[in-house]
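can u do me a favor
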């Protein structure tokens, strides 16, 4: 099993919207080749991910979700009405992929980016690295366990 951190702006798609789905939902709209490659090559059903609210007050980890389906062609790339439409994406060789995820747990409070920065053992976490802009990134098992302990203190 692998662990991930997946970012979304809560005014676009937040953890409460995933909860409301009552089952798996597509994680659509990622338009970065590194992220696409993670979806294609690394995501496996059963992997766990932190749901990270970006550009929020505060930005941070709001809860957890599970990968239920690895990357498959993101249908929004072919929809001219979608904000994620890509007119250069060929239907016979899709450029962009999306996994399915399902809700696991909402934390009692957001674990803020500042708290992550101040927590021993998280110094090398991808989301804390200067210039890190990816919306999906790996998390080590040790980082996962430290963050889950932080979350459990407030549940």
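np, heres the sequence
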């Amino acid at each position: 099993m692998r662990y991930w951190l997946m970012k979304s702006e809560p005014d676009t798609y937040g953890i409460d919207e995933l909860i409301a789905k009552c089952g798996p939902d597509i994680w659509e709209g990622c338009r970065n080749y590194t992220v696409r490659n993670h979806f294609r090559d690394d995501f496996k059903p059963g992997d766990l991910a932190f749901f990270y609210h970006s550009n929020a007050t505060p930005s941070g980890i709001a809860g957890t979700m599970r990968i239920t389906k690895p990357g498959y062609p993101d249908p929004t790339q072919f929809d001219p009405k979608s904000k994620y439409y890509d007119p250069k994406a060929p239907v016979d060789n899709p450029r962009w992929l999306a996994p399915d995820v399902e809700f696991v747990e909402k934390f009692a409070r957001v674990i803020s980016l500042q708290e992550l920065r101040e927590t021993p053992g998280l110094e090398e976490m991808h989301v804390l690295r200067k210039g890190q802009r990816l919306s999906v990134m790996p998390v080590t098992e040790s980082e996962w366990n430290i963050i889950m302990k932080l979350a459990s203190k407030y549940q």
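The chain has a mean pLDDT of 95. hope that helps!!
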